[in-house]
Design brief:
It contains 10 helices and 4 strands. By secondary structure, it is an all-alpha fold. The chain has a domain of 175 residues: Rhomboid-like (Rhomboid-like fold, Up-down Bundle), CATH 1.20.1540.10. The strands form 2 sheets. A two-stranded antiparallel ribbon has the order 1-2. A two-stranded antiparallel sheet has the order 3-4. Helix 7 packs antiparallel against helix 8. The longest helix is centred in the last third of the chain and has 25 residues.
Length: 273
């Protein structure tokens, strides 16, 4: 790289002036159109050859051509947290509880059909112990109060369990605390009118409560729910048979089976963690 001259001579007044000016400061004569560029010693060297433009096809760079614009890398995205993936961190709390919604829809559909079908045609006392009738008896409720109380219990605690354990766990708990509890109630009191989903609601409530109590006993901040309100809901579900033809024995069996299942889920989750 050649170094610039220390000075240049004005052609009009013959004065020595700086090579980085465009006009003579003495006579005002125009020396050059623009000042010369100052080169830095640490500046990167530019290619000597002329720059080649990348041909464009249809307004876009041809794929694989030299100098084509590179695609911007996609920003990394985290997948939704699955239930039980990281101990102590909850899964997506705003996910839809599909299993709980299906159970509520079936229960509401059977309840709406009660004006057109007699109760003894939907329960086990008259038709016989067919397998699907246990499920039917665990879904149907007698009266608005029983239907509302059972729907609140299943909807609330089914959603709480499903967001932590998944849909399969909710379905399994419902079958255990609903149809299975009704089967045990028939064994304890044969020939009785056994129906109502309050037993399944009590089972879901007890399964969730047992896990919360065990987590708090271990010093884990598992949930900040008010257990006094849970106790009130449990008392209402236990009193449902007093205002309807529901089975009190099935409700007790449902709550007991739910508590045992909640204990098993808590132990299994502790071992996995």
């Amino acid at each position: 790289m050649s170094s610039p001259d220390l000075f240049v001579v004005c052609k009009n007044c013959q004065a020595e002036v700086s090579p980085y000016i465009t006009e003579c400061p003495y006579c005002g004569t125009r020396l050059r159109k623009r000042a010369p560029r100052i080169e830095r010693p640490d500046a990167p060297a530019k290619p000597s050859g002329p720059s080649k433009r990348v041909p464009r096809v249809g307004g876009r760079n041809r794929p694989g051509s030299q100098g084509a614009k590179r695609a911007k890398p996609e920003k990394p995205r985290l997948a939704k947290l699955r239930s039980g993936e990281i101990p102590g961190i909850r899964a997506d709390e705003h996910g839809r509880p599909y299993a709980t919604l299906v159970i509520l829809a079936l229960s509401l559909g059977l309840w709406l059909s009660l004006p057109f079908v007699a109760l003894n045609e939907l329960t086990l006392s008259t038709i016989g112990p067919d397998a699907w009738l246990y499920l039917t008896a665990a879904l149907v409720n007698d009266g608005i109060a029983a239907q509302f109380a059972a729907s609140v219990g299943i909807g609330l605690f089914g959603w709480l369990i499903e967001r932590r354990r998944g849909a399969i766990t909710v379905v399994g708990l419902f079958v255990l605390c609903g149809p299975a509890a009704i089967a045990l109630a028939l064994v304890a009191d044969p020939g009785s009118l056994v129906l109502g989903s309050h037993g399944a609601a009590l089972g879901l409530l007890c399964a969730w409560t047992v896990q919360v109590l065990l987590a708090r006993q271990r010093g884990e901040e598992d949930d900040d729910a008010d257990l006094l309100g849970v106790l009130v809901i449990a008392a209402v579900l236990l009193l449902v048979p007093l205002v309807s033809q529901g089975s009190a024995v099935a409700g007790v069996f449902g709550g007991a089976l739910g508590a045992l299942a909640g204990l098993g889920l808590a132990v299994a989750g502790r071992r996995r963690a």
